[in-house]
Amino acid sequence: MVQQAGTSKAKIIQAADQLFYVHGYNQTSFSDIAAETGIPRGNFYYYFKTKDEILTAVLEHRADQIGSLLQACEEYSDDPKQQLLYLIEILVREEENIIQYGCPLGSLSTELSKVSLTLQQQVALIFETIRLWIDKKLCACGLADRSDMLSMEILSRLQGTTVLANVYHDAAFLRRSAAQHKLWLTEVLSNH
Amino acid sequence: MVQQAGTSKAKIIQAADQLFYVHGYNQTSFSDIAAETGIPRGNFYYYFKTKDEILTAVLEHRADQIGSLLQACEEYSDDPKQQLLYLIEILVREEENIIQYGCPLGSLSTELSKVSLTLQQQVALIFETIRLWIDKKLCACGLADRSDMLSMEILSRLQGTTVLANVYHDAAFLRRSAAQHKLWLTEVLSNH
DNA sequence: GTCTATAGCTCGATAGAC
DNA sequence: GTCTATCGAGCTATAGAC
Q1: Domain with B178 in it
Q2: Given its phi and psi angles, is residue A153 left (phi above 0), alpha (psi -120 to 50 degrees) or beta?
Q3: pLDDT tens-digit profile of A138-181?
Q4: Is B106's CB within 8 Å of A163's CB?
């Protein structure tokens, strides 16, 4: 479900998306979203029955954003190898946010695993769409026999880099780790 | 500050430690800790002025536990290489907890980075004691020239494995990833 | 040291006027 | 569709008896 930009519903989703990322889901109140959008608290219940429904809408929004990101990778180059390297570069492009707040999906999944398995599984589904995209690109590079394992390893390295960069608030580490990740992947891909 | 086991203060810290891990810091109330310990809510303020002080005491407790863990690695073998491999095996030994709730330090750091930088930095200090221990072991294996970089990479891989195992609730991935981590480290160490 | 009672606040959610 | 007013519950924290 894509929202019309500028409508109250779209404004709520957009503000909640940012606030959930910066302060966390449970640390964001309706008052916070009301203050950010200028829309009174009471109005939210016209668009969403519960706070969980807002999160579900935010997750749909993030899934769309992930779709756009993967689309951008495909527009960056026709070479699946370059597309994968461009995906890894997102760590550097999103450097400031990652250092302050971590990965928008990883940190949310971690929070929700302690709060609601139902909601956490919705985040896991978004992870899976990214993994499937990576898997497809690895197959296109002739690595179909190891694509399952490698796609998980790529995701794992991205998350590890993100968590540690956030723990130490260390931009230099993040850039170094991303560069090393790209070197490793280049070597893996060049053997086929 | 080490607590006498069995005192009310120690009981509060121990219950809070577990609840903060399972439900998160902000999702754990004084009532939850009271229900777990049988100690009335009001009493907490005799031992701690604020909830943040309880967290600080919990972090000291976790730092002690990490100290014991590293001590156990040293008692496992005299060989620093085996000590490092034994540290990685903690992923498998703590498999069930990690899959359900993630890393006790990583997930807490991620949560606190969205709540309080002051508290998050206390967690970062614990990460640093682990990294320094790894660094020391790498130096003992003759890798002093790359120990800074490698110690961060080891921590990064541990966190990546943990986050993804938690996202997918996948024990098989966790074991495979830990085994691969040990293979990689063995190769790195055998070149010196 | 241990306990009860409760203040003061904020939360998610509801009701109903316009 | 938009808004105000408010409920009931839960929270951290305090006061004060024993």
Answers
A1: 8-190
A2: alpha
A3: 999 999 999 999 999 999 999 999 999 999 999 999 999 999 99
A4: yes
